Amino acid sequence: GAGVSQSPSNKVTEKGKDVELRCDPISGHTALYWYRQRLGQGLEFLIYFQGNSAPDKSGLPSDRFSAERTGESVSTLTIQRTQQEDSAVYLCASSSGPGREQYFGPGTRLTVT
Amino acid sequence: EDQVTQSPEALRLQEGESSSLNCSYTVSGLRGLFWYRQDPGKGPEFLFTLYSAGEEKEKERLKATLTKKESFLHITAPKPEDSATYLCAVGRTSYDKVIFGPGTSLSVIP
Questions:
Q1: Which of A42, A56, A100 sits opposite B102 (nearest CB)?
Q2: Which positions ≥6 away from A37 have C-beta within 8 Å?
Q3: In A, residues 43-62, which contact B (CB 8 Å cutoff)?
């Protein structure tokens, strides 16, 4: 079956512009995660959606970052007024339930110039 | 506070030189412990889930084991293509998010 997909695969934007990143999880997966990974660094948790529960936003680094998920389908991560330190790979993952193994998408490489 | 640590941070092996990576965890209730492999420029790839102490899983040259406090990823006679970053993560019996360790970067030299 289809895995997790993300779009765009690459995004170059100017400092101060807003960007929107998209994640399509595996069908039927109730849990969805966003992570940020800077070059040579580990995974940095951003936000976690589980079913209809309130999302865990504890990893969002500032109020410029927000994310939405429609039911158990697509999620979008929005970064407003981008800064150069936002340059990273943004990874999305989904799982069949809370506390279960995650399956990752290929990531979106964001470059802020 | 629940946490996951991994050691060593980096490991360099000669081809054929077996070794082990460690993942230590402290969680209030373990639902599962996961191992992933991440190649440069790619998202992590799921390898194994371990659910209870004493459990073992194998895949090619990799074997993962679990105790009540830690997990080991044993690599037998590694090849250069095993070079990658290996991540472990824990899922908890609460509905809280999965926690990842920082990873071990493995380099296998021909």
A1: A42
A2: A43, A44, A88, A89, A90, A91, A107
A3: 43, 45, 48, 50, 53, 56
Given a cut of 70, the residues of chain A with pLDDT beneath it are 1
- pLDDT for B94 equals 83
State what percent of residues in chain A have pLDDT above 70.
Answer: 99
Burial class (CB in 10 A: 0-12, 13-18, 19+), B87: buried
Compute chain A's Rg from CA coordinates: 13
Averaged over B71-86, what is the pLDDT? 98
DSSP B40: T
